């Protein structure tokens, strides 16, 4: 079965009619991870399946995007203005609403290979239909599930006067999907490839660009150009900043970086920028954090402290917003080239941005350019700027801009030098600063990409995860490009022997998914100068108490201990590569929260994995939040460890309210009755004046009934107990409380 002629449509219902007409009523719909899904086609297909019980719809995707929804009156007051401001005009997926409620019809099945962390913990259908898959195996697994429709959003553009489309935010599976479609048609299967045009998508280059003929349907209508889903910047806690600081010291100038989205990615970027722009403050911070004293040799060996001269190149499955901060700061500036010879010369420092005849002559003495320069190799040299524009190659001769002919025979050294001197270009061009498979971020991030000119956008090359997440296929070039790589990932739990759990709980419930984590772990071990850095917050809050994320053992493993490398917590760096079990345990304990060190050490001794006489060194026995908070306080006036280092979509009041209400939730779990007592007591105390802007934001500044008065007291208590009101308010509140006590008590206080 050959591909149909591309049909251009403006109506989602007509598109669904065409899909069913082609593949029948058993629709297996594949969609990209995260941003690249079409709301309009998906909702139309789902509505059709709900209406027609004879139709069967299976949805295969990952990371379905949902606007936050409130679960209480207080959350409603907090969220409604935020949702209206940040996600104005962004549609919902209708199937997700029913999925959450457990109301999917029997003829609809949803399967995903990656979840937003923790979002489906109590959704039975999601837990039962999850597909565990490496990112590089996703298309293979889509094939196993026999998808017959693949639909995604694209950007419209023009190249050389011809209409083209860009996969933009999701080139991750692009080429593999095209191959699958071609193979399916060759086998006689009826399949459909649908592109939905959205003008809000930035037109990205690299392997993302396609001609219209690869699609069966191109859907574009005015009402379908909806705003993109925005992910607001996360607040960065002090512990996150401490992790980012340690990681930043392990990044080598001239190297390669892979990081992910969220607070930890922003923390790394913030520390890298501090290292580059305020190096004296950075070095002082490293010293005060203990990085210099405890891990200075490791930093000397694989990382650095100096500002970036060569800069970094990004090789990452996800183009996260943090990379744009690094780009704007002049750190993401090391360009790579899609040619082994050029990349080798660049890596060796022989070939710089400015091209010289001497270097060109040396390059022309290397295969494949030597001994005879062929047309395809001439084109490569001209494309990358080593040869001048305006030259023409024909019949083993090069015609220069003056009409002179030069032989393509390069065997004579003197002739090579003469040709290089005459035809040498001025500067390298068409280099790339970053390769990525997909992106999602804030509205500011999208706008930044859209407003770049085309040449600048080409620096950020979108490609498949089969390229960026592994070495297979072009190992030598990718190894040259990804020199001194630091692949940075996040784990949830770490065993004392180095096993990492990143995706699920030991009862089998899936928290997120493995995604591309294993791919980058394997690549870190395959590349001779690469390192895996696994980040871990040393503690978590569960069941009303603080628990250690470092455990003796855990009933689920994502990355087994034989693939261990470097682990970083807020308390330090554990270099585990090549270490014995005894050494691993001692190094892991040194970066564990001190509240849990002795208990873990006892378990290791009981198991005979560490000598009975071993004592955790004194230097690592003060791993406490208090020490980190004191470090942050010391540098507060130098804008270090800011909660939103790159700005926020939330107002100042919303930032304070969010932090205070999260703290209140923990306080209720820890000391329920004392917290409730404080809230009830607040009903009889005057409201501090400084609380009024926050109460006004929540619509509680003028309560009209008892319920609203109670909510006002909840918010006020959260603000006070979280220390969010200024010292004057605290003094005012203390004075108010004293005034209500007996005189003897006041005298005692005095």
From TrEMBL:
Q: Does the keyword ATP-binding apply?
A: no
Annotated GO MF terms? acetate CoA-transferase activity; hydrolase activity
Question: Where, if anywhere, are coiled coils annotated?
Answer: none
SUPFAM superfamilies, A to Z: NagB/RpiA/CoA transferase-like
* Superkingdom, natural source: Bacteria
Report the record's Gene Ontology biological process terms.
Answer: acetate metabolic process
Do you know which Pfam families this protein is assigned to? AcetylCoA_hyd_C
Concerning InterPro entries, the annotation shows: AcetylCoA_hyd_C, AcetylCoA_hyd_C_sf, ActCoA_hydro, NagB/RpiA_transferase-like
Q: Which residues form the Acetyl-CoA hydrolase/transferase C-terminal domain?
A: 441-604
Keywords from the named record: Hydrolase, Transferase
* UniProt cross-references to PANTHER family, sorted A to Z: ACETYL-COA HYDROLASE, ACETYL-COA HYDROLASE-RELATED
Its protein name is Acetyl-CoA hydrolase/transferase-like protein
Q: Species lineage, top-down?
A: Bacteria, Pseudomonadati, Thermodesulfobacteriota, Desulfobacteria, Desulfobacterales
